[in-house]
Design goal:
With 349 residues, the first copy, chain A, is α/β, with parallel strands linked by helices. Chain A has 13 helices and 12 strands. In chain A, helix 2 crosses helix 3.
DNA sequence: CTGTTAGCGCCTTCAT
DNA sequence: ATGAAGGCGCTAACAG
């Protein structure tokens, strides 16, 4: 009978444990008690550059190890009013350009002891909520990748002294957001000149989104360069920066068999690659000769032999480095950084 | 003269603001004072399901809006001992399979009010430090994507009652980590049978890492299926799950012109696609006829016409859903979930 | 339903 | 260099 009771107790206990955390993590007090010092000594032992004698520190560290103690970053951040966390709002998982950029950010931040709190926003509409939530985490900076922020929330960030970085987007409004982009104007102009120099006449443009500053800037420069040479405005379609959208856009642009473009500039590489495949598979057109195709970004895939895409490069690592330098306060007064790239001519154009 | 003084004051103020956060964010106390209620009432107004009268709540919300107040999540988490944050340790940005999985996780978590704290670990060696740091953020769960955790840290997580999920990896050790994988054995067997059924004789295998459970399981099943049919063990090379590594591995496997494989199974699609391109570009081999190439994952790119890769699918969305269900405590006792996929036959094999 | 009272775990003056 | 004491902003029992 007694045995049965014991078993039941054990069962109860394990059930309880799986529901609620019955185990309390050790605190600085626990460590202090074990090491025979004050709690503030423990705090100092874990704070770089605090004044504490080496032997005392060692004793504390030993006690901490024994207990499995780690400082609670939440409590620390609460006091200091800021956390070593950067909020990143990310949208485009499909595009390797941004995946790569996120990778670079992670690395640069890690080197500075910063962590990434990741938020996703498929549309600009949801960005505001995400950023609002970020603020309540007391992040030390906000990075917006491929999305825009309303000026209202930008103002809120500014008021809380949280730097905002827009990566690969600019903004016309004068709220204080730091922007880093590639050289959209120079790139689009270079592509246009390349098309003209190789005798292209019936030129088309595939936009990303109409409300993307990046796409608009590339389009404006591209159209301007062509107009300078007396060409009519290119035919135009919207690919939504996605593969699917780009396939549809390509079909639309090449639908009329009697009047197909002989050159196509896509607002990014992802769409350009989709266009290349669509031209091959559905129109029997091999990009390069009959029709030139160019992109923007120079993602790794652009150099793959299957695509050999002519494009204008955006140096991701540099762009990220500039953004991080700004956040770390290592930069001057600039607000809109434009990182130059270069025209990469391959076989597609 | 007075004007000049004002200007100087403004300058001083802005300099000061850029150095330290002179602006104190409004707290629940501030809101309480403005709304003429107690501070706990403010807390209740922002807590779903707390007992507070609708009109009082409205008054509080209005005051909060006026002040730009948002609850400090750090303080809340400090009390509750856990944050609505999930730690994700991520390694493979190059592989769209994981990018897609991360995307799915972000979406599923967002639907449950969970956030992602992102850590990167290029090697298994660094995973432990990352997870240790995660613990001090009081995350409510840890997800390991394509990396392994030492049993020491797994034990620490268990002691803190933090569920650990290994995504696309399993572990032989019996520490309590929940694992989700595709059906590595069934997939590799299906590929082997497909090779055999189409008369392949000189079969090769490209591994990921030797210490990756995923790669080892696929290899074991693949080798076993071939051995069942009396074939000798395949030639073998290691591609490190990267494009670069896969190109090198392909070169090694096909170096001897007199004895090239007539079938190649790669431990993932990313490597298989690299192999296809290398065969075309460097060996003049068009995958499908002369040499079959198969992968594993069924990433979107596998279906692109340029590759048309035969592969075994891993249903990312399902896998992620299972992992999230476990974290949310909606699942039973299972520890090692295997999500079945299916053989996708395209042109490459 | 509401206000009061204690803390959550830690950092940071302030004395010593 | 060290300990004591007072919060950081909020939630969670308590009474009423």
């Amino acid at each position: 009978m007694q045995l049965r009771v014991v078993v039941m107790l054990e069962t109860d206990r394990s059930l309880f444990m799986s529901d609620a955390p019955s185990f309390r993590n050790p605190t600085a007090h626990d460590v202090a008690r074990l090491a025979g010092v004050s709690q503030s000594a423990v705090s100092r032992a874990f704070t770089a550059g605090a004044s504490i004698s080496p032997d005392k520190r060692e004793k504390i560290i030993a006690a901490a190890d024994q207990l499995g103690y780690r400082p609670n970053i939440l409590a620390r951040s609460l006091i200091q009013g800021t956390s070593k966390v950067v909020g990143v709002v990310f949208g485009q998982f499909e595009n390797p350009f941004f995946a790569h950029a996120l990778d670079r950010f992670a690395e640069e931040f890690a080197a500075r002891g910063l962590r990434i709190l990741l938020f996703t926003a498929k549309t600009n509409a949801t960005v505001d909520e995400q950023v609002a939530e970020l603020l309540s985490y007391k992040v030390s900076a906000v990075i917006l990748m491929a999305v825009n922020l309303s000026s209202k929330l930008a103002a809120e960030c500014a008021r809380s002294n949280i730097p905002v970085v827009m990566f690969n987007r600019t903004t016309e409004e004068d709220h204080a957001a730091f922007t880093v982009t590639g050289d959209n104007a120079a790139g689009a102009t270079a592509i246009a000149r390349h098309f003209l120099a190789t005798g292209r006449k019936r030129i088309a443009y595939m936009a990303g989104y109409d409300d993307s500053s990046t796409s608009r800037q590339r389009e404006a420069a591209f159209f301007a360069a062509l107009a300078d040479s007396g060409l009519p405005p290119p035919r135009r379609a919207i690919g939504h920066y996605s593969r699917h959208g780009a396939i549809e856009a390509t079909r639309a642009l090449f639908a009329s068999a009697s009047d197909q473009p002989d050159a196509l500039f896509c607002a990014n590489d992802l769409m350009a690659i989709a266009a290349i495949e669509t031209l091959r598979a559905e129109f029997g057109i091999e990009p390069g000769a009959q029709c030139a195709v160019a992109g923007f970004d120079d993602i790794p895939m652009a150099s793959w032999p299957s695509f050999s895409l002519t494009t204008y490069s955006q140096p991701v690592a540099d762009m990220v480095a500039r953004a991080v330098a700004f956040i770390a306060g290592e930069t001057g007064e600039e607000q809109a950084v434009v990182v130059p790239g270069k025209l990469i001519v391959r076989n597609s154009a």
